[in-house]
Amino acid sequence: MLPSASTISRRLLGRLRDVMAGGGTAQERLDNVVKLIAADMVAEVCSCYVMRAGEVLELFATEGLLKSAVHETRLRVGEGLVGIIGAHARPLALADAQTHPSFAYRPETGEEIFHSLVGVPIIRGGRVIGVLVVQNKSQRQYTEEEVETLETVAMVLAELVSSGELINRDELAPIDGNAILPMRLEGVRLTAGIGIGVAVMHQPRVVVQKLVAEDPEVELARLKDALNRMRHSLDRMFEAQDLAFGGEHRDVLETYRMFAEDAGWRARMAEAIQSGLTAEAAVQKVHEDTRVRMGQVSDPYLRERLHDLEDIANRLLHHLVRAGGDGSTMLDAELPENAVLVCRTMGPTELLDYDRRRLRGLVLEDGSPTMHVAILARALDIPVVGRVKDALSRIEAFDPIVVDADSGQLFVRPSDDILDAFAANVEARAVRMATYAAMRDLPATTRCGQSVRLLLNAGLLVDVPQLEVTGADGIGLYRTEMPFMTRPHLPDVQAQTALYSKILDASGGKPVVFRTLDVGSDKLLPYWNSADEDNPAMGWRSIRITLDRPAVLRHQLRALVRAGAGRELHVMFPMVAEVAEFIHARALLDMELERHVASGGVLPSLVRVGTMLEVPALAMQLPALLSRVDFVSIGSNDLMQFLFAADRGNMRISDRYDVLSPPMLTFLRWITRLCDEAGVSLSLCGEMAGRPLDAMALLGIGFRNLSMSAPSVGPVKAMVRSLSLARLEDYMASLYDLPDHSVRERLRIFALDHGVQL
Length: 758
Ligand code: PEP
Ligand code: MG
Fold this sequence. Notes:
It is a single chain. The chain is of the alpha/beta class. It is built from 27 helices and 22 strands. The strands form 3 sheets. An 8-stranded mixed beta sheet has the order 7-14-13-9-10-11-12-8. It has an 8-stranded parallel beta sheet with strand order 21-20-19-18-17-16-15-22. A 6-stranded antiparallel beta sheet has the order 3-2-1-6-5-4. The longest helix is centred in the N-terminal third of the chain and has 29 residues, at 216-244. It binds phosphoenolpyruvate and magnesium ion. The site of magnesium ion has 5 residues, from helix 22.
């Protein structure tokens, strides 16, 4: 009987260990290694290529090719089959390599007589640092097991290549100019804010010392034990977080826990142990595979879940290496008082490992606003800049760093000028915050005595306490899509009821306007395959989806009715384009109310139903609409994009048109007039409501209800309290018919001249 693949690789690993532990130079050891692999895999050729300066793969050792080619043959990443393996970080097995379009013939190697080829990347820290290749004269079909064996061997070789004995370690990291000079790096804002501190490289990696094991059974038992300990420590961590938070955090952590229990992941580690690796080497192998896979997955949801998986692998590694420890990755004692964490990516629990009082910011090479760590950071009020290219190689530990997440940029080793400017900014912000906090209980009333309702936009349970902090009058827009986006499946009626009840409990009796599911366009649900649409902002989104999938809307409405039993319920439908859509959606709500009564449920004390106005066509049906709704809220973000036919997500045209322009202001004024005449309450909940100057213009037009994110309440209230409306209204009457691109500057001058606080 032929020996199994795992027996082959165990035997090979045992021999490799002897060679590695033996004497001689690193080059001599590498020469012996390729000889050994060729013999063990019954191949005529085994070659090892090493990455130089991040871009060239140099032949470093070979058994079977001409020795004179060693250190002579070089392939750029992407060039030839070796370069392709290096570029894609994926194995390649070909029975007839020479017919492959990427085959690059190198006469100095004498490889023309070899037909089949199998190669695997040598990976370290998520980067390809070399390629290991085996070749045969015959047209051999390499089996999956042989590829796996070679991958395991490549992992052992990664230690040798990265040891610094073969090539200078610096060559393995991409070099980027002079590390001493100040540097500005661009990324994207994942969580707003400004933080100043020193870089702390988040280094979850444990250096695995022992790779090859004697007895797989012992290793399997160690793995099992570490998995158990990890589960217990996760349970403890989740309990502690539950006390502090609740709601969506639990969703995040539960999705995470699901991955920790993933059978496929455990099976892959067990398999790696069977092939001869120690438990920690097996975890690391799966970890490296995950990192590489992550670079290749384009689906954002899947990428984020892979981050979670990687985080768990790391945690497990800590449990194995520090047997008996709690697996935490950073001791608080080591963490500076003003740490800015820098990493490629981070799982949610890794962030929770740090003392949040010492965190000033987070910098990620990867990242999207919906990734779990970003959601948590937002709740913890930590500024995050994501997608900073090569952050890890360009920032050094303890570099002073300014995280300007508001503008999606970083200043590394900033000059004193920059540091002073941002320090002044942070200080001024703190002073402003204190002023706003002092205004918390003062009414939002203009100097002429007109009171204005300031409401909050919210989307997470943790946003609700901001009602208390800011003194806002209620929640004018509760975006309900977040729990739908962070879960792997649709939340059921029970889960939704529980969440909506908690929101109402936490609001302390202040009104909360729940907007029904508004997904599609940029807000994608992982479990609904959206068809590729050329123009998703105008596509199958929002109410169009939920009217086409009425069960989803009915379940949400059922949960809202249940949560609202005995108290006020405010429901708002998004993206309504015609009255008929509103009538349809409202009929579903009525059905749910009837159903609730029929089953003996207590009705809400008051039901108010409204619509967002963000599609211009709806404004053309206002008389028919206003007799049917209790309130209207203008979604100026979407309204603006449809009014000007300017995609709100397209950076190229993001500043092209202004909300403070005659057409937009005229359109808004016309809506306020009709709503006033019909006695229907009107608010505006787009971003402009939260900007003091824009909010001033809205008051001049006639708005009396504005809904905004929590940090805007203070600045807008200060503006309201310094304003006299009569003069503003007169002044604005002169603006509507102007041919100007924007009247922003005119309004700013008006504010300055009239002592309006902006
Ligand atoms: C809007 O469009 O202005 C709005 C408030 O909704 P969203 O930003 O969630 O689309
Ligand atoms: Mg909208």
